[in-house]
Amino acid sequence: MRQRIVETAERLFYTDGVRSVGIDRIIAEAAVAKMSLYNHFASKDDLILAVLEFREEKFDAMFEESIQEHVAAGHDRLEAFFAALKDWFQSPGFRGCMFINSVAELADAEHAGTKFSAKHKQRFQRMLKGIIAETAGEEAAKACTPAIALLVEGAIVTAQMNRSAKSADVARVAARSLLAANNKT
Predict the structure, then answer these.
(1) Cβ 133 vs Cβ 141: under 8 Å
(2) Burial class of 40 by CB neighbour count within 10 A (0 to 12, 13 to 18, 19+)
């Protein structure tokens, strides 16, 4: 039952936002009793955190699987990363990054969901740094990861706002340019 509540809330929060979706709607769509929800989650804030934790697991698995498919097709891991990013942007129902969206909606630096989302972005950047290191070496990863991470985050927001996956290609080209410029120094 807990998992059904989390999966329902994740779907609703992603499509409609964490603030606009009420507990009653989650209860109705998950087909659970109010007490069942509150037996698992003391508050909506607790549910938001559980949803973000679930979303991270789900997203990370989906994203890594997509990267692996592109590596199997002959791309290096950095090219595969940007191809996976583009795949995500083109996926049905894409509405940007749930972590970025949640932080904007929560508008509270002390909210557990905001803190978790910030840590998620740190973990995502470490993963990206590892991919850059595999492709261009440790020094390039150390020098370029912060800028490439900004390109990626900007590409995510741009893809959501423009409803276009082209920003993944722009970010990929810019990342390669940064790495090439770094190699010349």
Answers:
(1) yes
(2) middle
Distance CA 48, CA 107 (A): 14
Nearest CA to 47 out of 59, 32, 62 is that of: 32
Report pLDDT digits (tens) over 90-104. Answer: 999 999 999 999 999
**Residue 142: which H helix or E strand, with range?**
helix 138-162
pLDDT tens readout for residues 2-25: 999 999 999 999 999 999 999 999
Residues 81/138, Cβ–Cβ less than 8 Å: no
**Cβ atoms of 159 and 167 closer than 8 Å:** yes
**Entry pTM:** 0.94
Cα torsion for 52, 58, 62, 67, to the nearest 10°? 60
The predicted-structure confidence for 102-137, as pLDDT tens digits, reads as follows: 999 999 999 999 999 999 999 999 999 999 999 999
On the 0-12 / 13-18 / 19+ scale of CB atoms within 10 A, 45 is middle
Of 55, 63, 7, 52, give the one whose Cα is nearest residue 30: 7
Q: Are 42 and 139 in contact (CB under 8 A)?
A: no
Give whole-number Cα distances, 126 to 22, 88, 129, 148, in Å. 34, 19, 5, 12
Residue 183 confidence (pLDDT) above 90: no
Question: What is the CB-side half-sphere exposure of residue 104 using CA atoms within 13 A?
Answer: 11
